[in-house]
């Protein structure tokens, strides 16, 4: 099986949104998705893009994505934040996620980031074990804080 990793285009937004919904269902929270394909276009390809993404393709079908953005740490400097790494359920365990994560590492390094950060749900053992293979460090003692508008 040949996996192609490539940068996303505006034409990919519907399938990316489908992947986002698949992830939301997996995380038991589809009702929390308020984003739209139209908003993703503005935010990814408008005057001031705020995110980037790479996609995994197998036989011309998009089977996964890594969506990221840049953030700044007063302690570490420029960092890449991995918002979501999603692989279609039927393709999990076949190396697609590994290629996407490595591609995301490459983007961080090419853009002089000091590291990569992301979150994982504490009950998502398959993802936690996947990230451990890469030597990921899991922080304790931090609480996520949100204000929604």
Percent strand equals 25-35%
What is the β-strand count? 5
Rg, Å, rounded: 15 Å
Terminus-to-terminus distance: 44 Å
Q: Major sheet: size, sense and barrel closure? A: 5 strands, mixed
Low-pLDDT parts are none
Task: Provide the structure class.
Answer: alpha+beta
Concise overview:
This protein is of the alpha+beta class and 149 residues long. Helix content is 31%, strand content 26%. The longest helix is centred in the C-terminal third of the chain and has 15 residues, at 96-110.
Describe the structure.
- The protein is built from 4 helices and 5 strands.
- With 149 residues, the chain is an alpha+beta fold.
- The chain is globular.
List keywords for this structure.
149 residues, alpha+beta, 4 helices, 5 strands, 26% strand, globular
